[in-house]
Amino acid sequence: MTARAIPNDAYHRPTLDAHAVAALTGRSADAVKMLRLRGRGPRYYKIDEKLVRYSLADVDAWLTASPVDTAA
């Protein structure tokens, strides 16, 4: 079995905390937390018991996943 190399940039990809996600989405950090707890927010990474991070790509995917078409 051959070990797969981890891309060099994997450890340098920026992650966002709830406050940064809140700023991007126009919600409060508490609202982002509640969405996470209800399973309705963007995908997240639980680093340890209290440390949660989001990738910008996951937040962007979540924001664009359910557009509402208002054209009649």
Q: Which structural traits does this protein have?
A:
72 residues, alpha+beta, single chain, three-stranded antiparallel beta sheet
Describe the secondary-structure layout.
Elements: E1 15-16, H1 18-25, H2 29-37, E2 45-46, E3 52-55, H3 56-64
Antiparallel strand pairs: 1-3, 2-3
Helix pairs in contact: 1-2
Can you walk through the features of this model?
The protein is α+β, with helices and mostly antiparallel strands and 72 residues long. It is built from 3 helices and 3 strands. It has a 3-stranded antiparallel sheet with strand order 1-3-2. A hairpin with a 5-residue loop joins strand 2 (45-46) and strand 3 (52-55).
Low-confidence stretches: none
Q: How many DSSP E strands?
A: 3
Largest β sheet strand count, sense and barrel closure: 3 strands, antiparallel
Content-based structural category: alpha+beta
Average pLDDT number: 85
N- to C-terminal distance: 57 Å
> What is the assembly state of the chains in this entry?
single chain
Q: State the helix count.
A: 3
How much of the sequence lies in strands comes to 5-15%
Give the radius of gyration: 15 Å
Question: Share of helix among residues?
Answer: 25-40%
